[in-house]
Hints:
Order of helices and strands: EEHHHHEEHEHEHHEHEEEHHEHEHHH
Strand content: 5-15%
Oligomer: single chain
Bound molecules: zinc ion
Distance between the termini: 14 Å
Structural class: alpha/beta
Radius of gyration: 18 Å
Amino acid sequence: MHCHVAGIGAGGSGAFISEQLRHSWKYRIYLKSFGISEDELRQHGDGLVIRRLSEQLAESQLVGAAVVLALDGVVDEQGNLDRARTESYVPNDFVARETAKYANLYFGASVNPYRPDALERLEQARADGAVLIKWLPAIQQIDPADERLIPFYEKLVELDLPLLTHAGDEHSFTRADNSLGDPLKLRLPLDLGVTVIAAHVATSGQQDGQDNMARLLPLFEEYPNLYADISSLTQLNKVRFMRRLQDSGVAAERLLYGTDFPLIRTGLTSPLFSLPQLGWQRTLPLLKVRSAWDQDVRLKLAYGLPAEVFSNAAALLLK
Ligand SMILES: [Zn+2]
């Protein structure tokens, strides 16, 4: 339930990435992990990224389907898309249109709530089959605790659309305002009854001297409408959080399986990084698993996560 795509506008997708990101070392790594060259993109259009994702998924024995996320941009004071401050823009209509072609893909929309027509955009997303709304507050300059967002949250409840929002620090872009990833800012949507999914269980970073995961965990007892996804927890810089999550007592029914694709294909989530936790006997067979998806599932199962974690997303999102 957490896969990213990107595009350069090829084939009229309307997607773009900033010049800064395009010239950063991250760009080459992302292209490689999508399994695509820039020439192929120009030739076949950005839709190829989504086709490749569907094909890779079809080869997986353990993962049946994925939610592909659009990514709205930064919005300026006039309510217009601020291209200069947007690093990656992936329009809803592009993702809706392309995912509809593949039975194993679902549409995750992204709407910046500061757009003047944000509520209509939510309705459109729902009509186009969106199963959730995705935010990256630190990148999109969204303050989840801003009371001007109350009508937006009420609309999410009305449309029964969960909000998947990045919590904790963000490292995948060239700049971020990480104060916006404070899990306590999610109290406002949670109080209003929004189904909130905190991405990566708010691992990494801290606010007011307290680490973000520690700020998120107590909220699970307070709010039955809070969930978290376990994407990126096997990443080199995050493996220690896996055990911490298991020791935290958060119920398995509140955890959703996600990959943060394409990150599972960058090498950052190699089972080797879990060697200290799992030992050679459990790590070696994982290194031989060819599909990045299957390897990710098997690695997380090796930690002893209950099987239901891997099917909760379907139950929550595909009602
Ligand atoms: Zn992500």
